[in-house]
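Section 3.1: Structural characterization of target chains.
Under the original work plan, the team committed to producing a structural model for every single-chain target entering the pipeline before any wet-lab resources were allocated. The record below documents one such target. The sequence was received from the expression subgroup and is listed exactly as submitted; it comprises 278 residues.
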Amino acid sequence: MIYNDLALFTAVARHLSFSAAADQLGIPLSRVSRRIGALEDHLGIRLFERTTRQVRLTQEGRQLMDRCQEPIDSLQDIAGLAGDSTPQTIRLTAPPAAVHSRIGPRLLDFAARNPSVKLDLTATNAKLDFFRDNIDLAFRVGPLQDSGLMARKLWTLTYAFCAGAAFCRDHDLSTPATVAHLLTLPALVSRQPWQIKGGETLKPKVIAHQIDTLDLLAEAARRNMGVTILPREMVTDGLQEITVRDACPVSRDMFAVYPSGRLLPARVRNLIDFMAAG
């Protein structure tokens, strides 16, 4: 009986819907609700938070899902119960700029090669909570502060000072600039400081605009509204890299991260390997 209830729990957790799980399994919705309630009573924990609009795993529910989903999948495969028509979801989060540049295309490549996997991607600069927001994997730019996370380096991002072509022409930036000259120019900044190799942090004297979204920061630079720092791969389409004497922005690493102690399903491990190989 406990195996049946855990299999039922896994179906509800994947769909985050009692009714969808009932439809998939071909059993009444009332039975699904009753059996999940009995499982919660048996374990002495609450597995789902239920509202009229949403079903969400609790932290305890997420931990149970981490431990039981792959064994359940394996047993269903052996029994011939797992159908290829039901995609296995990977819930992801990544910064929007990274999604638009390298991560997004790689995810689509992975999805094309793995039709049994369904991607559920949230593009945001906010650091979503793995348990509260039911996230399997996050892509984040280092340095990482949370010691409770496991991280695998995927690639290194190099950064560059840049501005629009007209801005560079008007401010004599066609030749290497001095740091002193750079810091007097109108600056487009995010909440990430201008750190250069060697550990120094540059502080522009004139902040034209503060914008947290890199895509919009790049667009503002294209419109010749100021100088900024961007990943070098974004310095395209009307943006011009600026060379500054004795000042080179630090590089940062992109990581795939997940909570320590989480048992990763094979599909998530395969995705991490695929992204790291790109």
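The first strand starts at residue 48 and ends at 50.
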